[in-house]
Amino acid sequence: MSDPADAGTPDAGRSPAPTTTPSPTDTSTPGDDWRGVAAEDVEDPEGQASLRLERRSRRLLGELIRPRRGPVALALLLTVLQNASYLAGPLLVAGAIDVGLPAALDGRPEPLLWFVLGYAGAAIVSAVLQFAFITLSGRLGQDVLLELRQRLFRHAQRLSVSFHEGYTSGRLISRMTSDMESLDRLLAEGLDGLFTSLLSMIGIAALLLWMDAPLALIMLAALVPLVLVAGWFRSRSRSAYRRTRSSMANVITHLVETMNGVRAVQAYRREHRNDEIMGEASGEFRRANKRALDVLAVFVGATRSLGNLNLVVVLAVGGWWVADGRLELGVLTAFLLYLRRFYEPLDRLAMVLDSYTGAAAALEKISGVLAEAPHVAEPSEPVRLVSSRGDVRFEGVEFGYGEDRPPVLPRFDLEVPAGQTVALVGATGAGKSTLAKLLARFYDPSAGRVTLDGVDLRDLADEDLRTAVSMVTQESFLFSGSIADNIRLGRPEATDEEVVAAARAVGAHPFVTSLPDGYRTEVHKRGGRLSAGQRQLIAFARAFLAAPAVLVLDEATSSLDLPAEQAVQRALETVLRGRTAVIIAHRLSTVLIADRVLVMDGGRIVEDGPPAELIGSAGGRFHALHEAWRDSLV
Amino acid sequence: MDTDTDTAAPANTADPTRPDLPGGHPSELSSPPPRGETAARRSATRALLRLSPYAGTVRTPLVTATLLALLAVLAGLAMPLAIGAAIDGPVAERDLAGLGWMAGLVLLLGLVESGLHLARRRIMSGPTTAVEARMRQDLFHHLQRLPVAFHDRWPSGQLLSRAVNDLSTIRRFFAFTSVFLVVNTITILVGLAILFSISPVLALIMVVIGIPTALITLRVEFRYNSESRLAQDQQGDLATTFEESVLGVRVLKSLGRGRHLARHFAAQARQLRGTELRKIHLLGWVWMWIMVLPEIGVAAMIAYGGYGVATGTMTVGSLVAAITILAYLRFPIDSMGWLFSEANETATASDRYWEVRDSLREIEDPAEPADLPRPVRGELRFEDVRFRYSGSGGAEERAGDDEVLRGVDLTLVPGETMALVGATGCGKTTLTALASRLADPTGGRITLDGVDLRDLRLADLRTAVTTAFEDPVLFSASVRENVRLGAPDATEEEVVAALRVAHALDFVSALPWGLDTRIGEQGLSLSGGQRQRLALARAVVARPAVLVLDDPLSALDVHTEAEVEAALRRVLSGVTSLLVAHRPSTVRLADRVALLEGGRVTAVGTHHELLASEPGYRALLATPDDEDGRDGVAEPAGNEVSSR
């Protein structure tokens, strides 16, 4: 807040909030081999940052500012007025010395008094306007930030699963964290300051030219070396700050991964190696930071020297002219005072320019995400589905992940009548999970259609579709909050009794009640102590509470032990009564409760029938699988 | 006004003179990690004093920098005096030669001022960044050696903010805050003295203006800092919500709960906006006063000085000098409040830093380590081992009897594979953690080849005993580095061989850069089965005498499981292994099976023996086909086990 030059090192004031994942801006230094190769973060506009915004960013910025035109104009007006009253100060001092003092010497103190009162008045007006401007522009900035955050959040939820898989979570999260922080930093460190500084510099230059053009020109000649120094600083500091940021990102990644994986670290005696890696990362940050500080030191030293040199020139020439009678003493005094005000915002200006380039790059990346069209879009005129029977059909469905990769489902037809429980069996890559994802509309087929009760999934309102079709996957993600909150996610309006009943149904009740806070246990604080199986049971309870017409289970029981799996199966048998279910399971025991088994291979159904029938057909694939599985039991 | 920086935690009486001694101080391991603001506000001075061992390393540059800054500031202060003298003397007397001399003097002072400031910054940049790096390294070193129980309680975000934000505050304190606390105090006193020599009344005006300015900045800075911390927490919460919405996007999509979470997010974002607005308001407030008070001082000086000039008691030059001095003292006066609050922040940062550094390592090399008999045979013996989670949730939890292990007796004969079977949550994973001393038993003992684990060097123990966890941790590094975690000096051939054994070579070769591909959070994401196979390879490459595997096959599909199982069989031969098993297929790998029930091993035998004799075992591992109808016998037994 006071000396910006010292107060804010690039990462000091506002380093990423604890949970942020830094964006991997890779600077491969020697000795970095262990890190391995990853797809480079190609979108790195900071590299060729310029002062101009890209069209995409400009459009976004326009959308955000347009509804706030009035307040923006008011803020600009405020800062102009504030500057005017602030600049009046030295002028009034000059008047006091040149007009007021001689008058006072003549025995007329009134003019001096008026100058003094005017000076104080201008100061008070300027301060009040400053307050108004800071709060108004701050509110504007925060409103824009709030809207941008909400937009990004909602948009990320609308974007399809395929986008999320391609973009990766880490990058998306840094859009919301470090990029938003760059924008916030610009707002905090003084977009307002930028206006004020530029305005006051222009104002001072104009004023001085008006007061005494020759002296003003001499003074303004110092702008030439100043601009050169600022240009040098901007190019040097940008690369220095980039290095501090990327090396700090490495420090943060290493620290967080080590702490989160401390079991493996200790069990595998990784501590020394980690110390070395941290020493490297931290040392790299130290060097980068020292460099940034040194560049800053030179910049501040150079501008200060120039300022002082300028002062001396003005004093010498001005003093000479005053002695010659070509200049009023008051004007010289005013010049000397303005000189200070002219140089004051320079340090800040350089810092703001730096955060501006960072923020422009951030805005560009954010607008990139917001410009992504959702591949799996909600229909503009959705067909309402009040209550679904659960009649599922795949009609001539084709699907592949990307143009250049072979199709996963070449041409696929399947009819699952309402209420039937279907189990999918087949090797990895046979297309089971793809089938499940198409049914849950994580993807849309490239040809053909998937229908629910005869309606194309693409025509259904998202809400109706999600009420009708629920999917439980192998990765049972828990959100922070209590266990009850997590189960209730299935149906937010469910009562406590219904939550407990759902947990009871899948056999999660005993272990939940054995936790110290029961259903109110916070999962994240203790998430580490919930086993994979327990997490999966909670995810199951969640899906059961949702009670959809169609339930899709994608390897949802892989981490359960047998009693738990059996409990889930018993629950399934009651819960699935009257519902359609598609089950992908590792364990053949789960498959046995199905009405019908589909054995898939290469995206096609190669066997289809009730489990007992398939087991009986010697030579069949399911028969062979079942034999192998039986052998494994004993 | 800073009530929110106070928390009611008990004071930690640590010896500030010996902070480098690991584990030298008693610490409240049982207190849950505080959020945001931490620990008791001890005396800020004492907290700052604890930095002295590190401050010692920068003593010389610190003193030099202070002297340079002082000289620079004094030179700067002399400039307005010289200007005043120039106006009163040569300018008034039209003495151009004299003007030249005075201009030369101002130039000299100006160059000295800027040159010394430059020198000060250059002198400090190296040592202070080095201190920051050293403190971070020491913290990291210590953290890695703290017990797993510590990390279960402390979210990594809390540790991160100490390693980054707090250390940055401390560096700033060394580089700037401490220097200018001294320099500004002297500057203000000197400036006051000069003003006093010009006119006592002008000095008085400065005092009257300066004191409220400093008080207002101090007061606002305190509030601003606490709002900043709040904003940082709220930013963290917001980030967490977004992170979860991205990581859990499949869950949200499949349940259609995106909007639900969006509302939650919006509420949090609005809260953050409120905090930021309060910060902005404070900022506007402090700026207003900083701008207006000195100007009123200047006005008062002109009024009084003008009167003095008119009555002939003062010269125009000294009035200009006085005004310029006031302008010059503005920054030192404004910044005193800010510097005090920075010092207070540093005290907090120091407390937070030492709070972690003071935590006991607990699990360490013994004072007089015993040697493992060579070669290691691998006889692992649990004798009446008890374990309870302590300090996880405060008193209400400890009141209940939450002993997880209640006297486990189990012996693994060298070379044998022992499966450990028990209901979910019965302590199997806890038991595996004890074998490599990730935690110590709270009762009884564990021996390896007859030596108590606690008498062994950690390095020896963890070389002999290797653990692969159920939820395999992959680091953001190459596949090779991840596998070599188990043996840093393993050759390429050994890594490849281990991958082959774990049936991971095929998919690793198919990765875009093969063994060099970065995986983990910042690289390619792998499926559960792939991760598990890499974890297996990691354990294989370590070639331990005792291998502990926590359900190594859980995330594999039926086909891969059969392949990995075959591979594992080769790995396990000749190695003593403890194998947590949920599945009959995993149990089949074992020579013997131990049944863990009620915190004890209730039976040991082969799979068939236990199936025949133990109803509890049958409930856990018998499939419907092994029973007389799946709704029959097994159900009550199963309920009994799982509802205990």
TrEMBL record, chain A:
<keyword id="KW-0067">ATP-binding</keyword>
<dbReference type="InterPro" id="IPR003439">
    <property type="entry name" value="ABC_transporter-like_ATP-bd"/>
</dbReference>
<keyword id="KW-0812">Transmembrane</keyword>
<feature type="compositionally biased region" description="Low complexity">
    <location>
        <begin position="15"/>
        <end position="31"/>
    </location>
</feature>
<dbReference type="InterPro" id="IPR039421">
    <property type="entry name" value="Type_1_exporter"/>
</dbReference>
<feature type="transmembrane region" description="Helical">
    <location>
        <begin position="215"/>
        <end position="233"/>
    </location>
</feature>
<dbReference type="GO" id="GO:0005524">
    <property type="term" value="F:ATP binding"/>
</dbReference>
<protein>
    <submittedName>
        <fullName>ATP-binding cassette, subfamily B</fullName>
    </submittedName>
</protein>
<dbReference type="Pfam" id="PF00664">
    <property type="entry name" value="ABC_membrane"/>
</dbReference>
<feature type="domain" description="ABC transporter">
    <location>
        <begin position="392"/>
        <end position="627"/>
    </location>
</feature>
<feature type="domain" description="ABC transmembrane type-1">
    <location>
        <begin position="73"/>
        <end position="358"/>
    </location>
</feature>
<dbReference type="Pfam" id="PF00005">
    <property type="entry name" value="ABC_tran"/>
</dbReference>
<keyword id="KW-0472">Membrane</keyword>
<feature type="transmembrane region" description="Helical">
    <location>
        <begin position="112"/>
        <end position="136"/>
    </location>
</feature>
<keyword id="KW-0547">Nucleotide-binding</keyword>
<dbReference type="InterPro" id="IPR003593">
    <property type="entry name" value="AAA+_ATPase"/>
</dbReference>
<dbReference type="InterPro" id="IPR011527">
    <property type="entry name" value="ABC1_TM_dom"/>
</dbReference>
<feature type="transmembrane region" description="Helical">
    <location>
        <begin position="72"/>
        <end position="92"/>
    </location>
</feature>
<feature type="transmembrane region" description="Helical">
    <location>
        <begin position="186"/>
        <end position="209"/>
    </location>
</feature>
<dbReference type="InterPro" id="IPR017871">
    <property type="entry name" value="ABC_transporter-like_CS"/>
</dbReference>
<keyword id="KW-1133">Transmembrane helix</keyword>
<feature type="region of interest" description="Disordered">
    <location>
        <begin position="1"/>
        <end position="47"/>
    </location>
</feature>
TrEMBL record, chain B:
<keyword id="KW-0067">ATP-binding</keyword>
<dbReference type="InterPro" id="IPR027417">
    <property type="entry name" value="P-loop_NTPase"/>
</dbReference>
<dbReference type="InterPro" id="IPR003439">
    <property type="entry name" value="ABC_transporter-like_ATP-bd"/>
</dbReference>
<feature type="region of interest" description="Disordered">
    <location>
        <begin position="1"/>
        <end position="42"/>
    </location>
</feature>
<dbReference type="InterPro" id="IPR017871">
    <property type="entry name" value="ABC_transporter-like_CS"/>
</dbReference>
<protein>
    <submittedName>
        <fullName>ATP-binding cassette, subfamily B</fullName>
    </submittedName>
</protein>
<feature type="transmembrane region" description="Helical">
    <location>
        <begin position="309"/>
        <end position="329"/>
    </location>
</feature>
<dbReference type="InterPro" id="IPR039421">
    <property type="entry name" value="Type_1_exporter"/>
</dbReference>
<feature type="transmembrane region" description="Helical">
    <location>
        <begin position="201"/>
        <end position="220"/>
    </location>
</feature>
<feature type="transmembrane region" description="Helical">
    <location>
        <begin position="62"/>
        <end position="87"/>
    </location>
</feature>
<feature type="transmembrane region" description="Helical">
    <location>
        <begin position="99"/>
        <end position="119"/>
    </location>
</feature>
<keyword id="KW-0472">Membrane</keyword>
<feature type="domain" description="ABC transmembrane type-1">
    <location>
        <begin position="63"/>
        <end position="345"/>
    </location>
</feature>
<keyword id="KW-0547">Nucleotide-binding</keyword>
<keyword id="KW-0812">Transmembrane</keyword>
<feature type="region of interest" description="Disordered">
    <location>
        <begin position="621"/>
        <end position="644"/>
    </location>
</feature>
<feature type="transmembrane region" description="Helical">
    <location>
        <begin position="280"/>
        <end position="303"/>
    </location>
</feature>
<dbReference type="InterPro" id="IPR011527">
    <property type="entry name" value="ABC1_TM_dom"/>
</dbReference>
<dbReference type="Pfam" id="PF00005">
    <property type="entry name" value="ABC_tran"/>
</dbReference>
<feature type="domain" description="ABC transporter">
    <location>
        <begin position="380"/>
        <end position="623"/>
    </location>
</feature>
<dbReference type="GO" id="GO:0005524">
    <property type="term" value="F:ATP binding"/>
</dbReference>
<feature type="compositionally biased region" description="Low complexity">
    <location>
        <begin position="1"/>
        <end position="16"/>
    </location>
</feature>
